[in-house]
Amino acid sequence: MVLMLDSASFGTPTEIVGESARFRSLLSLVERIAPTTHTLLICGPTGSGKEVVARRVHAQGLHPGQPFVDVNCGAIPENLIESELFGHARGAFTGATSQRPGYFQQVGRGTLFLDEIGELPLALQTRLLRVLETRSFRPIGASESLRFEGRVVAATHRDLQAMVREGRFREDLYHRLTVFVLEVPGLDQRREDIPALVTHFAARQPRPLSFSEVALERLRQAPWPGHVRQLRNLIDRLGVLALSERIGLAELEPFLAPSQNASAEQDDLADALLALEGDNKLQAAENLLIDRALQHSGGNKSAAAQLLGVSRKVVERRLKSRESRGQDAELLLEEGRRRVEAAEFREAIPPLRRCLDQLSRRHGAHVLQFEAYRLLGVSLRSVNGWLCAEACACYEAALQAGEGLGYGSELASMQFGIWVTQLMTLELGRARATAQDMLQRARDLGSPAALDEAHVAMANTLFWLGDCEEALACLARGGLLQGGEDEARSGLQGFDLVALALTFEGLAAFQLGAFARARQAMQRLLLRCGEDNPHPFNRALALQGAVWLACLFEDRERLGPLAADLDSLSEQHGFTFYRGIGQVFRGCHMGSLGAFDEAERFMLEGYQSHMLNHGGRLFHSFQAWQRGELLLQAGRPADCESLLAHALDLALEHQERTYLGELQTLKARARWAQGDPDGAEQELRSALSTAMALGSVSARIAAATQLALLLRQTRRAQQAAELLARALRGVATEAPPPSLARALQLLAELGTGH
């Protein structure tokens, strides 16, 4: 669909014109992305409507009533742009006679639209990156930083990836901006919308214009290098200068550029050449001509050269150059493959990109392109998180290149990438359906590695849906329970599937009250996460599971070192998402020591800066539970209740049910701490019912313990004892966590009347 603006409404989108599939898809993405706070990059040719899309994002965002500030980074002199963006204090420089707020301050909680972001000087790119990472900025000459509460939406018509390779744009800023990318198609990619656009623009003229069918078809077939803006300008000229209100072909032709009167046949040929595969269209066109000439001449180079109008030596040089490029690409691909196998993901990215650049000039290199895109997607995802836009684009390109090649297992690995994105964005219903498709594909392929991967994917999804019993059953069906110390099952992605299976076996067992089994899983994970593990990424996976279980078991002695190891290992190797997990658990450890302010800082930095921006919302409920516990212990029950209310809304919206009971119990405790025992009791009973319905023994113990404490305090000790005894009935006491030990102690006290 084509978004249009009413000039009298300061850019508020008021009408949607057109029905092309490309724009319907774009609008669908806008509707999903707009109600978030993520940074966003809008790409597309000049004149295609990038600012219109940005305003649409703002209008459908969380704060449409806040300002929309439009900044053209290429239109502000370089010596002024820093002051314009960040503002300045009085006396900061000569001429600064008063304090001036910059755009980052003016925007409030609204949207800061940085148009032509590719024109931003390198020095200011560093400062912008800092704002996006810390959500704060310091005006020029000021002594204190200010909080940035808005959203950054950037736009460009340039190839930022090429600028990164050339050193003209910071790679870390590129990845920070491309949490989501919207591609606005040019007018040449949606010609079916031209008649509707013409009608729309014509209705806005001082006198109404109408167009004949022949004139509309002429406009639809014409090239539009200036895209929608050029079309609008043409209609504006017709509205003033055309002699008649009825525009036919004779009235239209004088207003079209001379280039638009070129042979339609030549235009079609040029369009076909521009549609060739690869970035270098000139090289692709040359390859096509040489191959066709050789085909016509039966492989005779002299005859082919005569058809092409060049000498035989020219044809031989071109063929030799093509062969050399192909060999270079294969060497680069092999280097990238070695790097990925050694978990050197950051180092694998440059050779894989150069490989793809070489392959873009080589006709028919689908096999190599598939492998290069696949490995680049794996590397980008490992370095920049599961939601890296470029990684997703690589997976899509790999799928396209792999169609018809018979690469069943490789295409299954692409499906794994799709499942991960759905899981991390809490599209759990879709993730479950994709995992089911993965299981079916793996069975059809007869691939043990694909089947292992599919079982882990399904168990992971079921765990977050709150179906821990079925998660364990799924792992059992895949033969993935209680993996041994030396067992290695890597699947198609090269990950340690045994570590992942042990993680979710331990987590699910803990929720179901099989605490001894959960401890066994933790012990096996500890054996896999030592420094003798040669694969850094697999070590990070094992550390994640071990530290998670240590936190649940309140094992302070293990929690701190494991969290620090995960944090430092992930920072060293660029595993951004797992660094966030490490920092959240470091916050848990600091909170257990009473260092509440430092603990909260680590948790917020870990989740918001590293996990939320790179891995989605998957970890949201658990970190909210742990951060809420921290706030409650720090004497901030109102903040705790507010945090938990939001977390519960998100969990219910996305069916993320695993820690639902824990969230409800903690919210009730916050209400109790604020002097509302009646409200707390009601919520605790609801939490207990939720835990019973989900079969979550750990949540049942927590809710029943708190409810028993409340009942005892309100002089209902006998009722408290009966309730707690029922809740603990059938719970195994072997290797109990502290929460169960506390519940048993309370039951004993209630039985003796203490």
From TrEMBL:
Short name of one Pfam family: HTH_8
Domain Sigma-54 factor interaction: 16-240
UniProt record, GO biological process: regulation of DNA-templated transcription
Keywords recorded for this protein, A-Z: ATP-binding, Nucleotide-binding, Transcription, Transcription regulation
GO MF terms, alphabetically ordered: ATP binding; sequence-specific DNA binding
Keyword Phosphoprotein assigned: no
Gene3D superfamilies tied to this protein: 1.10.8.60, Homeodomain-like, P-loop containing nucleotide triphosphate hydrolases, Tetratricopeptide repeat domain
Protein name as it appears in the record: Sigma-54 dependent transcriptional regulator/response regulator
Species assigned in the record: Azotobacter chroococcum NCIMB 8003
